Please model this.
Amino acid sequence: MKALVTGATGFIGSIIVRDLLRHGHTVRALVLEGEDAGPLKNSGVEIRRGDLVKKDTLQGLCDGIDTVFHSAARVTDWGTRKQFYAAILDATRNLVDESAGRVQRFVFLSSIAALGFGRHLKGALETDPPRKSGIPYNDAKADAENFCMACHREGKIACTIVRPANVTGPGSVWVRDIVDRMLTLAGVPLMDGGRHSSSFIYVDSLADGIIRAGTMDIAAGKTYHFRDDWDVSWKRYIEDLGAFIGKKPRGNVPFSVAWAGGSVMEKLLTPLNIRPPVTRLAAAVMGRNNDVDCSLAKTDLGWKTTLPYEAAMKNIGEWISTRYST
Model:
């Protein structure tokens, strides 16, 4: 198989590329102008320069490609609606237009956020439709899912949707941001006492699921959730992260307070291009139970958790030790 991977220099995309190569597949990566593609090129990846929001730079990108793994997006908890929709929905439309009639499968990397953050998602099914919540990231993913599946139903292109839970691993935003904030005077408070499930998927387990979804015929036209079978609360996870740097969580914020505060701060600070200290997205991730159901991924794809929590944290701890001094 010859695969195209967008977001190939990113946290998730780089692991998808690594595992595709390990399985003997050929990989082409879309990389922004000026972005360092040296490590990809050295590993045997074909590099194409282009920008997903600039349609004219994508011409010929999918020639000779069998499967597209579209992982590029704006991955952060803050920003304007325009920024999220350009990087997620507009980019996906442009890539689908370039892929249609050329590729056999288009895998869109969405998120459980597309189910509508701000409420408990425990038990949410893979067949549940997208639902908007007013959070730009959430809504852009939901609209992009709807677009992809409409294209599939119309016979324009065979699509598969992947909805990861909270992705962790060495270099994850849920490692870097928490450690960085623990090292400041403010520290990191627990949300609702840290009692809710962390609902994590380790990046290696996710990449395995994504590749299965892109290479198995049964996955065409379907949506899959990926969440590891770990019984780990946010309190335990943050305490375990803090132990690597000699820090502990500080204080507690009720979900309702964080949600309301995030809404106000986003409205005040985002237009000024200032990152809010708390956002609705962060509140929804850490202050709700997001243990979505993964039954289809397990039965259709034979997917399962690939690494125990303790082993995953050992890898994360080693990464932290190389980048932070205690």
Notes: The longest strand covers residues 26-31. The radius of gyration is 19 Å. The chain has eleven helices and eleven strands. The chain has a mean pLDDT of 95.
